[in-house]
């Protein structure tokens, strides 16, 4: 087995190293979802098909792995806005993105307490991704408004606040199902009134 060496900061990873990194992140996301932030790093490496050394070269600590999982999921959510805008009608693109946002909130809930424990205040990590997420929902709402699917006076942040609100008052493990239903209620309630 060839020992993988990471490039200096700012340089691209080799294709095989990038694939290893992506596999580790995907397996780690699922492991953290199932077992919490204390999921075994050795098991994550094994399930990703890499040795522990490869995992630690990419992510020197549990905190670094948790931060990378959160950042990657935030980037995917932001990028999904553009993808949905290119492939779906405006209101359907907004709906699909909001459903992904529900999943993002669930992942953030799992990672937030662990990040707080391991890296202190995770506020800077969350704020870094907030701008891209905000831009994605803003663009989707604007497109739906321009198409006549959504009321002109809708503030995109209200949609996010409603979903976050459901997550914050969640008292049962099925809050995600409630949030998914809320997405449809919000979309319906955001339609322009026809006179």
Describe what you observe in this structure.
Helices cover 74% and strands 0% of the residues. It is mainly alpha-helical and 195 residues long. The protein folds into two domains: 1-60, Orthogonal Bundle (Arc Repressor Mutant, subunit A), CATH 1.10.10.60; 62-189, Tetracycline Repressor, domain 2, CATH 1.10.357. Helix 5 (90-119) packs across helix 7 (156-168), helix 5 runs antiparallel to helix 8 and helix 7 packs antiparallel against helix 8 (175-189). Mean pLDDT is 84; it is low at 1-5.
List its traits.
single chain; 195 residues; mainly alpha; Arc Repressor Mutant, subunit A; Tetracycline Repressor, domain 2; 2 domains; 0% strand; disordered N terminus
Q: What value does the average pLDDT take?
A: 84
Number of domains: 2
Terminal CA distance: 70 Å
* CATH class identity of the largest domain: Mainly Alpha
CATH architectural category of the largest domain: Orthogonal Bundle
Main sheet attributes: strand count, strand direction, barrel closure: none
- Portion of residues in beta strands equals under 5%
- What is Rg? 19 Å
**Poorly predicted segments:** 1-5
Helix-strand topology string: HHHHHHHH
- Structural class determined from secondary elements: mainly alpha
CATH homologous superfamily of the largest domain? Tetracycline Repressor, domain 2
Q: Give me the CATH fold name of the largest domain.
A: Tetracycline Repressor, domain 2
Apparent shape: elongated
How many distinct helices? 8
Count of β-strands: 0
Helix fraction, binned, reads over 70%
